[in-house]
Amino acid sequence: MDEQRGFTTEQVHGGFLPDTAHGARVPAIHMSSGFLFEDAAQARDRFAGTDDGYTYTRLGNPTNADVERRIALLEHGAEAILVGSGQAAATVAFLGLLGAGDHVVSAASIYEGTRGLLLQNLGRLGITVDFVTDARDLDAWAAAVRPETKAFFAETIPNPKNDVLDITGVAEVAHRAGVPLVVDNTLATPYLVRPVDHGADVVVHSASKFLSGHGAGLGGVVVDGGRFDWTTNPERWPHLTQADRALGGASHTDRYGRGAFIAYARDVVAARVGPTPSPFNAFLLRQGIETLSLRVERHVANALAVATWLEAQPEVTSVDHAGLASSPYHDLARRYLPRGAGSVFAFTLAGGEPAAHAFIDAVELFSRMTHLGDVRSLALHPASTTHAGRTPEERAAQGIDDGLVRLSVGIEDVADLVRDLERGFAAVRELAGTDREARPAPATTGTALGLPTSASAWVPEAVEAVAGAVPAALPVSAAVPAAVPVSGAVPTAAGAR
Ligand SMILES: Cc1ncc(COP(=O)(O)O)c(C=O)c1O
């Protein structure tokens, strides 16, 4: 890779290998279960690993490999494994590290599916987990470590509370305990933060979300930073450090050095468990990645504007967006997320669940969906859906109140989004029988937030906040000053504050 190339260049060109057969500019979709051997000797060599050509798509496919190279570059990782979903990525990463009797220390604020994976599925295999309630409390991470602890796990931007992770702080505690930090970077994407640069060792993604953006197919990825030294405490990682017959009696660390984990995860875990994505889905994912930075710029700008606007609504008791100065995670967002604190966050309505349901039923542009990171804006009521399996006490401990609404803000024109949210507030007011006059309809649509002078009267707070608080300092706007209206409008949330 040319180290000088910027993120956007790399998301379009990174890892591209010319098609020597036809010169196709866009790599082909190799929908083939298997690959021909020229002769028996080649078949033997491919099975022995001395010829690195393809054999069978579960073990490797050129389309999938193309996407793996690109994501590894974007994440500043050494190597990536593409799989069929985010849950498959977490499973492959955990099974590549853990065995019966091992223990994980995890942030409590993680995706419910991953929590279930750790507690139920891995739990049945004899793997235990302890959760750190406040991930900012580094002493709590250290206190949870046991002799059998083999991994720390957390998300860079958890949902729905937007409670940004102190990546370096947690990585340092993990490394002092001699274990790797695995992070889920789904909601940040490498455009907002590259966890490996801050000390994380393994990065997983649900590529179904922002990396794809189009919401047309699932995907997942495991990225290895390639820095963790598995030989420092070799007895902790016998599957990596002891002789393996498939490697001719060498160990994974003998053969691959610091790449031992990802080689094992690919050749021993993924190849056996079989979470291989269809090459067609890999192609769709790559199409999404090529516009990642452009979409995320718009996502974070829209989200900050919406969050700012929401904070001014009398029916709202709190807005959980780390780009806001009111957020207890604002300093962490400034440190780790200078381009913005993502676009998945929550706000809480004073009217509890009835108000939240009325709100969600009234919006028309926001889709009622359990999905995130789509170009379309999405809304969900966690207490009665994703977190319904938790007790009220557990939800309260996590700050998931009955009136909390989760938003995944898309790339639509922000004026249209605010107008749609206003429909939700009108329904909340009607439910409560309050007599607050609806704000006037916008005079214009589309560029309201981007152009403070022509902004609609009904989003003045957001305009002031974005235009006033973040004007000059944004890396994005500085990099692309005139040409991109969005960058001028929305520079970046946290970085400017
Ligand atoms: C942060 C996070 N990680 C992982 C997943 C699981 O991803 P997938 O649905 O692709 O399996 C999700 C799904 O919502 C998620 O939000």
Features:
single chain, 497 residues, alpha/beta, Aspartate Aminotransferase, domain 2, Aspartate Aminotransferase, domain 1, 7-stranded mixed β-sheet, binds pyridoxal-5'-phosphate, PLP-dependent transferase, transferase
Structure description:
By secondary structure, the chain is α/β, with parallel strands linked by helices. The chain folds into two domains: 7-30 and 61-288, Aspartate Aminotransferase, domain 2 (3-Layer(aba) Sandwich), CATH 3.40.640.10; 293-496, Aspartate Aminotransferase, domain 1 (Alpha-Beta Complex). 38% of the residues lie in helices and 11% in strands. The chain has 20 helices and twelve strands. The chain has helices at 7-13, 40-48, 62-74, 86-97, 112-124, 138-143, 167-176, 189-192, 238-241, 252-256, 260-273, 279-289, 292-311, 330-336, 352-362, 392-397, 414-432, 460-469, 475-479, 485-489, and strands at 79-83, 103-107, 128-132, 149-155, 181-184, 202-206, 220-224, 316-320, 344-349, 367-368, 378-380, 404-408. A seven-stranded mixed sheet has the order 1-7-6-5-4-2-3, sandwiched between helices. It has a five-stranded mixed sheet with strand order 8-9-12-11-10. Helix 4 (86-97) crosses helix 11 (260-273) and helix 15 (352-362) packs across helix 17. It starts with 6 loop residues before the first helix and ends in an 8-residue tail after the last helix. The relative contact order is 0.11. The structure holds pyridoxal-5'-phosphate. Pyridoxal-5'-phosphate (PLP) binds at residues 85-87, 111, 113-114, 155, 184, 186-187, 206, 208, 218, 220, 372. Keywords: Transferase. This is PLP-dependent transferase.
